[in-house]
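queue> pop job 88
queue> type: inverse folding (structure -> sequence)
queue> payload:
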């Protein structure tokens, strides 16, 4: 009896360490996949097309919206981001857990069409810590960093919409917390009864 994978939505203010945490989790749990989003923004020096994002132009992105190719899409800092509907559906059908790294707007869209999705919010320890991380990663100028800090407050104001909250004060602990959430959701009653149906049937026969 096939068991479908779980869909996870992970959101956080920019600079909280979400991407590094998700990669560490996927390196530890082979049955977890990261959804690679499409985006209209330019790649950063360390990024590779089809590895970090599918980089595309605005015309193509808008044609994909009209074709209904996206599970969710949103504008973040003046650029479009979107999640491929078909890719996610295929992975879940194959029993893989899928993680979407998206913002709170995308989370709201996902919860509307897929209410069973499991959502996790990654919280920075302080705004000062977040500011320091944004400066140290050297990807944005002072103006952009200021915009990201303002956006962080807006993002955190939606924390009550999520199922779980993980504090990224200590990277190792935050990683273990994420793994614990994923493992616990693999052991829910409904999933285990379906997975262990033959064993249960034999015992109670």
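queue> result:
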């Amino acid at each position: 009896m096939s068991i479908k994978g779980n869909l996870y939505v992970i959101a956080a203010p920019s600079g909280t360490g979400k991407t590094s945490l998700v990669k560490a989790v996927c390196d530890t749990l082979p049955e977890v996949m990261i959804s690679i989003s499409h985006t209209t923004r330019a790649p950063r020096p360390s990024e590779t097309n089809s590895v970090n994002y599918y980089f595309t132009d605005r015309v193509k992105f808008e044609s994909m919206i009209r074709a209904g190719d996206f599970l969710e899409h949103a504008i973040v800092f003046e650029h479009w981001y979107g999640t491929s509907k078909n890719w996610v559906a295929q992975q879940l059908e194959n029993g893989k857990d899928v993680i979407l790294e998206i913002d709170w707007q995308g989370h709201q869209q996902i919860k509307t069409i897929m209410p069973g999705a499991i959502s996790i919010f990654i919280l920075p320890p302080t705004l000062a810590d977040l500011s320091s991380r944004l400066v140290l990663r050297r990807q944005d100028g002072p103006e952009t960093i200021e915009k990201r800090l303002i956006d962080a407050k807006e993002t955190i104001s939606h924390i009550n919409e999520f199922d779980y909250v993980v504090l990224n004060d200590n990277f190792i602990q935050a990683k273990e917390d994420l793994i614990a959430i994923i493992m616990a959701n693999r052991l829910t009653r409904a999933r285990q009864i379906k997975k262990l149906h033959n064993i249960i049937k034999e015992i109670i026969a």
